[in-house]
Amino acid sequence: MTKHSTLHDRALAFRSLHVPGTPLVLPNAWDAVTARLVEDAGAAAVATTSAGLVWALGAADGDRLERGAALAAVARVTAAVGVPVSADIEGGYAADPAGVADTVRAVLAVGAVGVNIEDARYDDGGLPLRPVAEQAERLAAAREAADAEGVPLFVNARIDTFLRGAGGVDLTLERAAAYRAAGADGIFVPGAVDPGTVKELVAGVDGPLNVMAGPGAPPVAELAALGVARVSVGSGIAQAAHALVRRAARELLEEGTYASLTGGLDYGELNALAARGR
């Protein structure tokens, strides 16, 4: 089997996991070891968190990382696991649609079969979101690039209306329709976890809906009953891990004790996981 056919089959397998009512559950990872931990826990796929990934590289989230560094990190994740990988590529690591297409080709080259592309803006333009037509062009470029490579890449269009306080259900559904028409496969609406809101989004989105869960959000079973097709946690696990680092460091420096280290993974187990070849 060629590398291309393997990538194609993996993309189809990943696509098939998005089932409304039986959602794909993704504990987001940010490097090779966390990806292996997620796979070892039984996940059917691995999704990266852009925030966790860039923090591990000493950078800030929000379209600040250079494409090459981001994709090199994704490559380490895809090489570490046997399950399909979806890459969070922020806004596409590019200024224009042609650049987004280049990023997608690079994503495929390192073995990922899904992408998240967000419509948030982080420049000084004053607007929290890209104009709909502009974002649709970027998504269309991603779709066309993947199709030209013969890989059914799952393009997850992230809509940041709720996360950025830029609109509610109606505006979100307008954007979702435009993004689906441009070639997006799924719609991701972080910040929307209220059951009533999720129910409206499921009913109004023509395609699988992804929500971002965390403390205070309904459990996966409830989101499944609402018709959600994908549940992820974004940077939540990375944030919890970094909170432990700070808590343990402060305890050690201020109290001279080690209670925060209780419950850590066994050294041999973690080392063997890190050393496992693919």
Automatic annotation (TrEMBL):
<dbReference type="InterPro" id="IPR015813">
    <property type="entry name" value="Pyrv/PenolPyrv_kinase-like_dom"/>
</dbReference>
<dbReference type="GO" id="GO:0016829">
    <property type="term" value="F:lyase activity"/>
</dbReference>
<keyword id="KW-0456">Lyase</keyword>
<dbReference type="Pfam" id="PF13714">
    <property type="entry name" value="PEP_mutase"/>
</dbReference>
<dbReference type="InterPro" id="IPR040442">
    <property type="entry name" value="Pyrv_kinase-like_dom_sf"/>
</dbReference>
<protein>
    <submittedName>
        <fullName>Isocitrate lyase/phosphoenolpyruvate mutase family protein</fullName>
    </submittedName>
</protein>
<dbReference type="InterPro" id="IPR039556">
    <property type="entry name" value="ICL/PEPM"/>
</dbReference>
